[in-house]
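does this look right to u?? coenzyme A version
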Amino acid sequence: MKVALLDSTLREGEQSPNVSFTTAQKIKIVNALDAFGVEYIEIGHPAVSEDIKKSISVISKLETRAEKIIHSRALKSDIDDALLLDATWIGIFFGTSDISLKYKFGISHQTALKKIKYAVNYAKDNNVKIRFTAEDATRTDLSFLIEVAQIAEEAGADRFSIADTVGILTPDKTSLLVNKIKDAINIPVHIHCHNDLGLATANSVIALKSGATVADVSINGLGERSGIASLAEVAMILKLHFNIINKWNLGELIKLSEELALISGIPNRLNQPIVGKYAFTHKAGLHTKAVLKYPNSYEGYPPEMINQNREIILDKFSGKDAVADRLNKLNIHYSSEQLNKITNNIKRKRSSKSLSDIELLSFV
Ligand code: COA
Ligand code: ZN
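got this back:
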């Protein structure tokens, strides 16, 4: 399966509350994403502010393996901004649901089609590649969405993107929708999934499995409200469950995630899949005993795959094997009677905190 990832940390990610990146931080993020190997990086929407426009002008000149894409409303002025910033790809978006047409624009379906056609045509005449996104596509009447996709293709769009703007899709609905759109047009289909129901990753992966070629992601899933699909999650699922040939450097995922948590001020949950501190931490005695013999017993994939370490913590849930393992690592010799005693003492400990080496030594 050949698919690609488009990272939108610099555009969608920066739409997270209280997040604003400096140009230097953006350059760092772009370089880190390039080291991982995402195929596309969305570098911002120039109309938002002067500082964003300036950072786009710097970033669009950076040499990267990833192709860069500039975000734009379906407006001549936004497209002109992107063209002045040497865009090779412009991502033009327009809300297509009845809600968007009525409350955002106050226009008819026919006027919307005209605006979309004009904008895509105009950008195409200027020799750039275009991804057209139907914003709120998943609440758009299907027959109208197909009309939009066909108009965008006819006007010159190179890609059509389905945006699940309010995160309302489920995996089965995603699959149906991608298939319907794919059947109606000849250009590749992209998917942009929001996480309002916690399904962004699942929906993105199923969209790719159903024939979409590119999924939008962001580092740590940053984005409006509950964010979008997480880069680490989508990449790992694709690697583990599908025959993916992309040369992604999975060993960069933790670094990317930790750096972004610092820069954005939005920390990962401790138990966040893949990148969370507890993702490979084992606690219950029956688990740790098995993991010490054969890690795969309680790990779906090895932490080494992403340069992460396995941890075995000690507290009242620990059995003798975990305690013995830690004592061995500390080079402490013990009899089986002493091991029993130490384990029992750990079980009597009141605090919910796991045992540090120093505390263990005090029990010894
Ligand atoms: N395509 C074309 N026109 C669009 C559009 C789209 N996708 N989305 C909105 N518009 C139009 C509106 O209809 C409105 O037109 P009007 O001036 O003729 O009424 C105009 O854009 C928005 O203007 P306004 O509501 O007055 O907003 P603003 O001028 O105060 O700010 C932005 C506009 C884009 C600068 C501001 O909203 C912003 O910084 N947004 C951040 C980027 C963003 O919203 N991204 C969403 C990505 S999914
Ligand atoms: Zn979005």
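The CA atoms of residues 281 and 311 lie 5 Å apart. idk if thats expected tbh
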